[in-house]
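Hey team,

Sharing the 3-methyl-2-oxobutanoate hydroxymethyltransferase run so nobody has to redo it. Sequence (266 residues) first:
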Amino acid sequence: TRRVTVRDIAAAKQRGEAWPMLTAYDALTASAFDEAGIPVLLVGDSAANCHLGYDTTVPVTLDEMVMLTAAVVRGTKRSLVVADLPFGTYQEGPVQALRSATRMVKETGAGAVKLEGGERSADSIRLLTESGIAVMAHIGLTPQSVGAFGGYPVQGRGEEAAAQLLRDAKAVQDAGAFAVVLELVPAELAAEVTRVLHIPTVGIGAGAACDAQVLVWTDMAGMTGGRVPRFVKQYADVRRVLSDAAKAYAEDVVGGAYPAEEHSFH
Ligand code: KIV
Ligand code: NA
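Structure output:
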């Protein structure tokens, strides 16, 4: 077995093959997805919300992302591991972006990094790719900008916003990104971006025409609890399974059914 590479990803678009991406934040979950054949795993800064208990992605640090990414790399054999650069670790410009991305790939073995922003991040994407680091871009709704957006509104609605999204998509492609996430974008616009670009689009809340799809694993598997966004399809009820297991264990301990003879040493 060898790892999936950015060349495999490029070839998939040539063949018109759709592929799935999932987030992962720890070694065991990542190994399950690796075994399931998920070709690309994203150590998203959604780890802030979905793994570390923060309300937004803004507080998660590079130290935390490095630790989680290293775990996901250790847990996988075949998946290409993409690591998010968190808020505040690249916004100062290309030099800061290169310093953060270099640390990420050196200390974790990640195959690529991801950062948010189209035209505004193009210079950073260019320096990283010229320096030999594979970059996945992320445009449309960029959650690190939650303060400036005042929430998580659908992006690219209206002629002007759609034209800007197209410019952002071309800018990250021209800068050398190997793929681009389109988050919360009208399906028709995502389809147009997908047609126009030669690099793959990875949709989340961006309709069916994208070259690939990504979901946050805790949403997809029913671990999140509470409301999940409308674009999520829930494939399992992992939170219920875990909670039921915990309750059954507690009942056994309280009632004396566990440990039984076969669990004991003499
Ligand atoms: O952090 C994340 O999980 C992401 C995906 C939703 C694309 O950036
Ligand atoms: Na992210």
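The chain has two domains: 6-235, 238-266.

Ping me if you want the raw files.
A.
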